[in-house]
Amino acid sequence: MDFRLKLAIAVALVAFVIFTSLALNDQPLAKYSAVSRPSSVLRLGYFPNINHAQAVIGVENGNYQKALGDIKLETQIFNAGPSAIEALSANQIDCSYVGPNPAVNGYLKSEGSLKVISGVSSGGAVFVVRNDAGINSPQDFSGKKLGSPQLGNTQDVALRNYLKSHGYNVNVIGGDPQVTPAKTADILTLMIKKDMDGAWVPEPWGARLVREANAHIFINEQDLWHNGKFSTSLLICKGDYIKNNPEAVKRLVEAHVSETLWINSNRVQAVKLFNTAVTSILGSGFDERDLHSSLTRMELTYDPLERTVQKAADDAYSLNLLDKKPNLSEMFDLRILNNVLQEKGLPAIT
User: Fold this and answer.
1) Same fold, 36-123+228-343 and 125-226
2) CA angle 303, 236, 50 (to 5 degrees)
């Protein structure tokens, strides 16, 4: 092979490498951060809240890892849904327990690549106000300072939608009353110091605010929904993880359903296990009275209550917290859940 031919081949190879590199760099980032093959790990996110009790208890007692077998379980704790969605988007976790509104937002922003694989809880969210805040009716919120766990999370949307329905200005920034997103532990501190007048929070923080912040439940959100049922938590996974790891996802769903059934039949013991787990996560647990009180206002369920998720998404859109009107027709993938339910002799979710 003469020198000119060798040179031509070398130039062609360099050009091919450069062209390929440019072509890859021009692709959407999400496409290359996604799982492209089966994984020996399942990375799971959840919150230390009672409406994520299945994960809190199931991870702590080892049932989730036992169900996964040789698939390693890695976990990450979050304070509110938007942070969990960011972690899913950044390929830091594969599945997560999360509220309906962050799940919807993540589904839309991922162009449908996030899927709901099970329900988690119904109810368990309350609007608590200080007894000395001068709030006795919906007409008393002007000039007040209110809180929610995070902008755009499920309780934040519920609070803003409630205020809007009573004629208040609920801009994302400013407005009257002022809505300030804060961590639930910080909400407790602010209300004790009287720097916040009320907050829409998940349990058991509602019960705790009542007991520790001289407050009362102004609204039990169950009272705003038909038959008192509405989704407050969902179990979601990245679509590519489901596709490439169906057995891992099935084992996760099996553990989730089993834990749901066990908790509902063993609430006293479940409260003790939940508190032990939360103590190891946060450094301190909840008063068991708060946990038992919380469970009277909620239900753990694997039914995602799809219609209520659509309603919550429509509310978020009306508050300008979603860029476009949500179409959730492809968001729910319950095939694995219904397969698990069938194997357990339980009715399918339709």
Assistant:
1) yes
2) 65
Number of neighbouring beta carbons within 10 Å of residue 122: 24
Give 223-251 pLDDT, tens digit per residue. Answer: 999 999 999 999 999 999 999 999 999 99
Identify the H or E element spanning 233: strand 231-238
Closest CA to 38 of 224, 243, 329: 243
Q: How far apart are CA 160 and CA 27, in angstroms?
A: 38
Q: pTM for the complete prediction? A: 0.81
Q: What class, spelled out in words, does domain 36-123+228-343 have in CATH?
A: alpha beta
* Nearest one of 259, 237, 216 to 53, comparing CA atoms: 259
DSSP 36-104: -S--SEEEEEE-SSGGGHHHHHHHHTTHHHHHHTTSEEEEEE-SSHHHHHHHHHTTS-SEEEE-HHHHH
Strand partners, 300: 121
Given CATH 3.70.10.10, say whether it is the number of domain 125-226.
Answer: no
Contact criterion met (CB below 8 Å) for 42 and 74: yes
Give the helix/strand (H/E) hosting 300.
strand 298-300
Q: Which two tokens stand for residue 323?
A: 């860029």
